[in-house]
Amino acid sequence: MSLIKVKGSSITGDLPAISGANLTGITTGKILQAVQSKPDSGQSSLTTGMVEYTGGNVSITPSATSSKVLIMITGSLMVGRNGQSQTHGSGRTHIYRDSTDIDIHCECGQNYGSMGSSSSWADHGITFNNVGLDSPNTTSSVTYKLYFRGGGSLQGYVPMGGHITFTALEIAA
Asked: Which of 45, 64, 34, 51 is nearest to 140 (CA)?
């Protein structure tokens, strides 16, 4: 039997389970909507700068300007090394809201290994998890995008099949 004291009073007996339907008085912290996208296209880049992944994104329309958006972009990158002097590979991913870098990023990898000859390629798979809370301050649709690059002069690419999941959760604030 449970016993709960509330301001000097006691409640005894079995307590009912609390579900979302019973939480009508709570106005913050509720998940108001969830949107997910799982693209399936690959893309490569040889540039040392950040490149937009054009294979997919996720859009959400907040219901209030005070809402927060929990954005999660997870997946895998490949990094290609093209010379024996490059003994490790890394990648970097950033999340953008529309055209703005919202400073949610991931430095992925640091895979070390040896190569057979200076003309060999060695590809390393790197997983990444970009997760952060954004305050878009709008009730207009916003689109969250992934930008990526390989480390240094390395080729970075999203392998064919995509292996990326975009998830956006609107949270009442």
From this structure: 64
Mean pLDDT of 123-132: 80
* pLDDT exceeds 90 at position 137: yes
Give the C-alpha separation, 95 to 53, whole Å: 10
Distance of CA 86 to the CA centre of its chain: 28
pLDDT of 69-90, one tens digit each?
Answer: 999 999 887 776 555 445 556 7
Q: Measured between alpha carbons, how far is residue 37 from residues 97, 116, 144 in Å?
A: 15, 39, 11
Tell me the C-alpha distance between 69 and 172, whole Å: 9
d(C-alpha 88, C-alpha 113), whole Å? 6
Q: What is the pLDDT of residue 142?
A: 98
Reduced to 3 states, what is the DSSP secondary structure of residue 28?
coil
pTM: 0.74
CB atoms within 10 A of CB 153: 12
Interatomic CA distance for residues 21 and 26, integer angstroms: 11
Spatial separation of the C-alpha atoms in residues 17 and 31, rounded to whole Å: 19
User: Two tokens at 75?
Assistant: 């997946």
